[in-house]
Every structure is written in structure tokens, then in C-alpha cells.
Amino acid sequence: MGRLVHFEIHVDDMERAMKFYGEVFGWSFQDWSEYAGMPYYGAVTGDDKEMGINGALMQRQSPPPEPNQALNGYACTMGVESYDETEAKILEQGGKVAMPKYALPGMAWQGYFIDTEGNIFGIHQPDENAK
After folding, report:
1. Is residue 56 within 8 Å of 8, Cβ to Cβ?
2. Per-residue confidence of the chain (131 residues) as pLDDT tens digits?
3. Which intervals hold domain VOC (predicted)?
4. Would you say 20 and 70 are in contact if contact means Cβ atoms under 8 Å apart?
5. Count of CB atoms within 10 A of residue 117's CB?
């Protein structure tokens, strides 16, 4: 045991966050608010036959992170087919670059962004030719 099986992204504006993650990554959402007793939407991140996990967007319970504050928690990283195309979608939907694209030599392209809710997340495009 100990394998990650679920994640929660804390958000201020549920509709804005669902639009951002839906448009950028193609996620769909299920309203689980009744069960949670607060605004809480399950995030379906892909087909159950594919590697990965599902999670949720939940209403933030405290102030959001301050701009330029060091990360104080987990950062989720999403696998993508095209770093550049995904970055364009992120920026188009109101996200910002936190750490620009860099190579993990012989493995992948990696970078970090700030979503519309002030949360940091990464994207990762496998590429054996990255240098």
C-alpha cells in the first residue's frame, strides 16, 4: 500500500477551475458536493484502462497561496503528448508559467505552471531525445 490513488486541487472559483482543467487536459467532472458537504467535483482525468488516477476539485478552505511563495505541498504533474501545444492551451486559458520548459536529458521535457486558482502543477512530455 501507499500508492497515490486520489488527488484534490483546492480552488476559489469552481466554474473557472473546471473550465481551465477541462479545456487544457480534457478532464470531465462529476458533482459530489452532496457527499462532501461542500462544493466538490470529482475529476475524471482519462480512461480507466490508461495509467493514471482521478481526483477532485474542492472549495478552498483558507486563503490561496501568495504569489511567488515557495511550494508548500504536493505538485501534481500531468503527462502530455505535446509540451508546446499543452503550454499554449494553459496560457490561453489563463494559466501562467512558474518554471519554463527544461530537459530531463534522455527522458522528457518538464515545466511548471500556475493555474487560475494560484496552484502550481507540472506537465511532462516523454522524449528520449530531450537535451
Report:
1. yes
2. 788 899 999 999 999 999 999 999 999 999 999 999 999 999 999 999 999 999 999 999 999 888 888 888 889 999 999 999 999 999 999 999 999 999 999 999 999 999 999 999 999 999 999 99
3. 3-126
4. no
5. 21
Query: Residue 125: phi, psi to the nearest 5?
Result: -110, 110
Displacement of CA 100 from its chain's centroid (Å): 16
**Closest by alpha carbon to 116, among 98, 99, 93, 97?**
93
Number of Cβ atoms within 10 Å of the Cβ of 101: 15
pTM score over 0.90? yes
List of long-range contacts for 11-14, beta carbons under 8 Å, 24+ apart:
11/57, 11/58, 11/59, 11/60, 11/117, 11/119, 12/60, 12/64, 12/117, 12/118, 13/116, 13/117, 14/39, 14/41, 14/57, 14/59
- Give the C-alpha separation, 117 to 97, whole Å: 13
Give the C-alpha separation, 96 to 123, whole Å: 13
